[in-house]
Amino acid sequence: MEEKSAPANRRSSGIDSLGKTEPVPLGAVEASAEDRTLTGMTEFDRVLGGGIVPGSVVLVGGDPGIGKSTLLLQTFSGLSRKLGRLLYVSGEESPRQIKMRADRLSVNPENIVLLPETSLEGILDAAAKLSPEAMVVDSIQTVFTQEMLSAPGSVGQVRECAAKLMLFAKRSGIPVFIVGHVTKEGTIAGPRVLEHIVDTVLYFEGDRGHSYRILRTIKNRFGSTNEIGVFEMSDSGLREVDNPSELFLSERPRNVSGSTVVASLEGTRPLMVEMQALVSQTNFGMPRRTSIGVDFNRVNLLIAVLEKRAGLHLGGMDVFVNVVGGLKILEPAVDLGIIATIASSARERSIDPKTFVFGEVGLSGEIRAVAQAEARLREAAKIGFKKAIIPAGNADKIKEGQGLEIIGVRDVEACIKAFFD
Q1: pLDDT tens for each residue of 161-215
Q2: Which domains does the chain have, with CATH numbers?
Q3: Contacts of 30 by beta carbon, 8 Å cutoff, 6+ apart
Q4: Does residue 110 carry a pLDDT above 80?
Q5: Among the residues of 91-231, which ranges form H helices?
């Protein structure tokens, strides 16, 4: 019997076929600006860093049914007029289903080619023959490569398919958009390495009970991170929100305790959002603490600061904190808003509706300065606010007050006096 060697287990990352490369001094590398293409959707271009870069791979993640396919179909509608032929690969829906959605969204059908396919090899062959200007793969969890025996959506399949799509995009210069579902824990279904493979990671967020949708940049090799785009879901698809601050404050109650407006910063965009709190006597031995839209542990920490440094007795009180509009805010500049909102509800004293706050709070009760203070003030003045209570460290450096009455505070006690005395 003739002895034969087993074939080598070739990894599908495509590294072997790239050829040998030589080290290059950094000074000898020619730097050039990326040739970006605008999509026609201002909010989408914002989170991408100014448009689509040729050969880039963009991962769009989100809960099932949140609107990822709608977003990309509307984006392709505008791109098709500028670039030409585009390829939309669907592993979940039939062409008839996509056509029905396109008609509802008034999508321009010209130059958009549909491919119902789940085999990666079939997708790459079709893309090589068609040579589209851009491509969408919806979704990565349904795609499989024949080089692996595992089921579609498994860790190995997702990793290998993403690596091959990345290699295809870099070689051809065709930008590729990959749709990925999110698990219950809020991460992209599949391995975390998928986020390391791609160039840009976008999360499409939103509360099913609200019409607002937030497109958030988590990673971007061609622009800044933590940028957001704001959309409103309607019967005819996603509508861009040019002034999200005004939208989030449109239904704000007036002269009611437990309501404060906070100037937050998402990437480079300042947002005015309403923070609400409800403080009530507990009926149980253990008081309840609940927060929606802000970090739960941060709220507990600020409650302890209020008790220790401001003399508020909240040990026997239930405290509920909510960010209106379904937003999730992580930056520490909203600390002062949480403090003011809880104090307002606990004292049954309303805060002037033309007043807003921002600032970070330390454990000793000090109010710390935050970044981009002037940008926050400009946004507030633009929509009609008159008074700002901010950290003294920021107030001392403000050159232009934008016509606002600015009060700088150094600790929590001074902040509460500024509100209620």
Answers
A1: 999 999 999 999 999 999 988 765 556 655 567 888 999 999 998 877 778 899 9
A2: 35-242 (3.40.50.300), 248-420 (3.30.230.10)
A3: none
A4: yes
A5: 95-104, 120-130, 155-172, 193-197
